Amino acid sequence: MRVLSYNIHKGIGGRDRRYRLERVLSVIEDENPDLICLQEVDRDVPRSRCHNQPKLFADHFNSVARLYQTNVRLKQGGYGNLILSRWRLRSKHQVSLRYNSKKPRGAQMVVVETPEGLLQLVNWHLGLAEQERHWQVKHLLHHHLFRESEHLPTLIIGDFNDWRNTLAGGPFQAADFQQVTAPASRFRSFPAYLPMGALDKAFVRGAINIRRAHVVRNRAAAIASDHLPLVVDFHLGRNAKNDKSS
User: Fold this and answer.
1) Which residues contact 118 (CB under 8 A, 6 or more apart)?
2) Which phi and psi angles does 138 have, rounded to 5°?
3) Alpha carbon 18 to its chain's center
4) 143 pLDDT exceeds 90?
5) What is d(CA 103, CA 93) in angstroms, rounded to the nearest whole number?
């Protein structure tokens, strides 16, 4: 199974600043993911031709399920996170991660009915300040909606904005999560045209076997957004199958 995470920058290229959503669609399609986790997705915003990007993505990939979360509201429209799934969602929740008066952020939590069992998947876009990010991770991990399914194999993925990689040895280690995207030198994803920061990360807990994780590095991805996509191939273990059959 394959999950792709991608900060699409509203479909605006990182260098040419042109809105070309077809470039983002092509980059994703080439990776053929089963689960798609996107950040900075516009809906009804003039800069992106007032497109309903969540619907455009869902229609393009013939998604069985989709979940959109508006985090930042503008004078017209807004932008946020999007999950697309090849399979049905058993449950879906969205949580605000806004810290004090900083820019609104959010997390999406879904339980996916994969062919190998139930999977709890989290897609998010964390804040720019280190203290803010640590609070956001702890808030999510202790949230009652997250804990409803914490017995399931869990994968947390998205734009962490964690330049110094302090979350791995902090709240994630305390909660027994394993970092998939290590070492950071192999997962530099920002800026797309000259990657220096490993901002797009993934963590797992439970019966999840990682086959491969990589950042997509090609000419198309280098111009489609200001981030490169992160792709994780994985299988669920025996415990996950038992969860589905119960």
Assistant:
1) 90, 111, 112, 149, 152, 153, 240, 243, 244
2) -65, -40
3) 23
4) yes
5) 20
Residues 62, 101 contacting (CB under 8 angstroms): no
* Chain CA centroid to CA 195, Å: 18
CA dist 239 and 229 (Å) reads 29
Kindly report whether the global pTM for this prediction surpasses the value 0.90.
Answer: yes
8 A C-beta contact, residue 108 and residue 124 = yes
Q: Is the domain defined by 2-245 classed in CATH 3.60.10.10?
A: yes
Dump pLDDT digits (tens) for 199-246: 999 999 999 999 999 999 999 999 999 999 999 999 998 644 434 333
In the numeric block, which tokens belong to residue 206? Answer: 């439970």
* Cα–Cα distance, 132 to 100 (Å, whole number): 9
SS3 33: coil
Cα 7 from Cα 25, distance rounded (Å) = 12
| One-letter identity of residue 42 | D
Angle between helices 53-60 and 21-31 (to 10 degrees): 40
* β-bridge mates for residue 12, sequence order: 19
Print burial letters for 25-52: b (CB count within 10 Å at least 16), e (below 16).
Answer: bebbeebebbbbbbbbbbbbbeebeebb
